[in-house]
Amino acid sequence: MEEKFPRALWVRLLIYIAVGHVFAAFIYLLFEAGAK
């Protein structure tokens, strides 16, 4: 079992996390704007 993760995997993971946060913030803003 390889202990070190390949660099591409870390980059992809960071991109997925960043996109997920942006998407969640966008939906949150939509709900906030819709509630007012």
Automatic annotation (TrEMBL):
Keywords: Membrane, Transmembrane, Transmembrane helix. It holds the Pfam family DUF6126. The chain crosses the membrane at residues 9-31. This is Small hydrophobic secreted protein. It comes from Streptomyces zinciresistens K42. The lineage of its organism: Bacteria, Bacillati, Actinomycetota, Actinomycetes, Kitasatosporales.
